[in-house]
């Protein structure tokens, strides 16, 4: 039998945490043959609720769950973890300035970065879910310099999955028949959901979404808006923000990262930019990636597209370029704001 993998979930007493921990304990994140030990962290005011979640995990008698650590101590929570899913953070409350929210999260991510750096297992993989997700991940990276930058990511898979869902409804195919949408940039309303390279299996053949949805105006307008604003639509309907879909997407993110993406399919992940696609280096920006052997690789642009053989690169048109730059600009501003909170 495999050795258990230790998975940290911060903010585990919150609503995403409540949906996420049973998925992990059932093998949705790491596979049905992978035992896990859950490490759950929250803050002292939530300690009792956290203990209640631990009681329910015991009561659910998950065969793969080999242990549960429920704690308000960051060091205990981070010790020897192989995977860290960072859901805990300070939410924006009505009337609060952006800078105040940023400042709270910068201080949380700075201290949790140090704890992870000192106490997590070597090669620990980190996924930041808490907003502002890209910038929290960047702060975590800056304050955990010994964790390889390749190991620090943020969640845009929910946005990616939302885009797949919208295309599936529009074209009238199962969502599993849609692939290769892209979320570029920030997990915010400036994100760019891009279907330029997306395909659908229809009547047994793979076809470009653009050839099936003749309404280009919808793809360039309504579709983008729906995906960008979906979080707000869920809040309006549920009076609570997305939780089950966020938890499910976090499992998808880690599963594909660890176990690999299917041949010919890419997914969206917020990763440390190396300057690919002329996105400024040094931002955590969502790119199309493929994963193999536990490592992600940005799907690369190619400038040899003329040959028309199927090269893996993606061509970026002017419409896309503008949207990719706008969301990069927002991230550059967020980064500056985060840094101004450090001094
Ligand atoms: P909740 O408020 O239900 O839960 C957050 C939990 O974090 C609470 O239990 C709180 O006590 C805990 N917490 C606060 N500070 C902490 C700290 N320093 N250490 C450990 N735990 C701490 O929020 P929930 O709905 O679960 O959302 C969690 C985060 O995910 C939010 O920041 C939210 O904005 C973000 N989201 C990100 C998404 C994404 O796609 N990247 C989508 C869903 C979600 O909106």
Automatic annotation (TrEMBL):
**The EC number(s) this enzyme carries:** 1.1.1.37
Q: Which NCBIfam families match?
A: MalateDH-SF1, MDH_euk_cyt, PRK05442.1
Q: Give the originating organism.
A: Acorus gramineus (Dwarf sweet flag)
Q: InterPro entries attached here?
A: L-lactate/malate_DH, Lactate/malate_DH_C, Lactate/malate_DH_N, Lactate_DH/Glyco_Ohase_4_C, Malate_DH_AS, Malate_DH_NAD-dep_euk, Malate_DH_type2, NAD(P)-bd_dom_sf
Provide this UniProt record's keywords sorted from A to Z: NAD, Oxidoreductase, Tricarboxylic acid cycle
Q: Which family does it belong to?
A: Belongs to the LDH/MDH superfamily. MDH type 2 family.
The GO annotation for biological process reads:
malate metabolic process; tricarboxylic acid cycle
- Entry protein name: Malate dehydrogenase
Give the highest taxon in the source lineage.
Eukaryota
Domain Lactate/malate dehydrogenase N-terminal: residue ranges: 5-152
Q: Which residues form the Lactate/malate dehydrogenase C-terminal domain?
A: 156-336
Active site per UniProt: 187 (proton acceptor)
Record's catalysed reaction(s): (S)-malate + NAD(+) = oxaloacetate + NADH + H(+)
Where, by residue number, does NAD(+) bind? 11-17, 42, 105, 129-131
Enzyme class label: oxidoreductase
Per its record, what are the GO molecular function terms?
L-malate dehydrogenase (NAD+) activity
Q: Which residues bind substrate?
A: 92, 98, 131, 162
